[in-house]
Amino acid sequence: MKYELDHEEIREGLRRLCKDFDGAYWRKKDQTQAYPIEFVQALTESGYLAALIPETYGGSELPISAASAILETIHHEGCNAAACHAQMYTMGTLLRHGSEEQKQRFLPGIADGSLRLQAFGVTEPSSGTDTTALRTTARRDGDDYIVNGQKIWTSRAEHSDLMLLLCRTTPLDQVAKKTDGLSVLLVDMRDCDENSLTIRPIKTMMNHSTTEVFLDDVRVPAENLIGEEGKGFRYILSGMNAERILIAAECIGDAKWFTDTSSRYASERTVFGRPIGQNQGVQFPIAKAYAEMRAAELVLREAIRLYESGGNPGEEANMAKMLAADASWAAAEACVQTHGGFGFAVEYDIERKFREARLYQVAPISTNMILSYLAEHVLGMPRSY
Ligand SMILES: Cc1cc2nc3c(=O)[nH]c(=O)nc-3n(C[C@H](O)[C@H](O)[C@H](O)COP(=O)(O)OP(=O)(O)OC[C@H]3O[C@@H](n4cnc5c(N)ncnc54)[C@H](O)[C@@H]3O)c2cc1C
Fold first, then answer.
1. Which of 69, 136, 184, 286 is most buried, judged by most C-beta within 10 A?
2. How many C-beta neighbours within 10 Å does residue 133 have?
3. Shared domain check, 315 and 256
4. Residues with beta carbon inside 6 Å of ligand 1?
5. What is the pLDDT of the chain when averaged over all its residues?
6. What is the mean pLDDT of residues 259-264?
7. Residue 2 pLDDT more than 80?
8. Domain check: are 67 and 149 in the same one?
């Protein structure tokens, strides 16, 4: 299928790169729940993961539309960027709020791949979506912070050198607003003693290298505090538009993969002496999912346009993420249905992509939270929590 696309040169480069990582590669990783290290390495060496890092720190200083094109193409080609996408948006917190010294210390290594910033520790088992109720604490002790607590769903922690950690530096009962008193620390996990930092993998329905992280008196140098103490929640929020945009781009890529796969199969598979795609019952769900994807893509483009012109596309970025996740899920459902029994066969890759696409209804933000944001912050209805 021919789509109208921007950043064609970047996309073409990605298409070439992704050819080396075919369905068999991803199936093997999926079956063994193994980290796609070769794929991440290839992306890093080609500079794609450093797209958003400024040239001064060794990156290519591209706009977010280019980063979106990178992630969308990876997913459109049947690959999965979840192994490394966080680096693109977690890095933004360091870039926007870190000191010049911190940027000089970390960004060049992140850009050339010698340092991985893939882990983002926000969610906790007891607080879930209610981030400000998190219980991980950091107490100042001389030149260090001492961190105690537990994180869950900290993806890629085993494959990352650094973790961006949100923790409480002022107890909840001593702050005026519950969003105050949270701070962001850049934890260099290579320096942590193994008795204080424990990482346990969590097996999930798709291959996602996610973990739970236990922090028991972990010492983090105070020089690794990002920005000002107590303002961490604001810093994390300021990266949300980029995160929503980039994840929406991945969902658009997935939707295109499913739709291409469905349309091709529907045109080739013959039952009752004619292609199954000649039946409107088969055509329509595919066409409907395509229309939904195109609509989501338009909202995503608007979010990107506003972001790149320096605006705050909170509304558009959230809507793009939700609509794109819905469109990819509709396309996934149509793809399984179009393939009949073969939709369930591992070697067709559809069931794997189907499992992968389901995640985006829940993480990194669930659909309910986006609807709540739109209802309260855009439409002005009463707050529910
Ligand atoms: C594979 C995977 C990878 C992840 N990676 C990371 C990561 O790298 N770093 C990280 O910090 N987190 C990560 N997460 C966590 C993810 O962001 C959370 O799972 C998600 O935000 C939902 O939180 P929860 O699981 O605690 O659900 P809960 O907060 O327990 O919510 C459960 C359900 O109830 C709904 N709900 C809760 N409150 C309300 C309300 N007031 N109104 C309406 N609905 C409500 C939610 O929408 C959800 O559907 C990951 C999760 C998964 C599954």
1. 184
2. 13
3. yes
4. 120-123, 128-129, 153-155, 204, 208, 210, 359, 362-366, 368-369, 372, 384-385
5. 97
6. 98
7. no
8. no
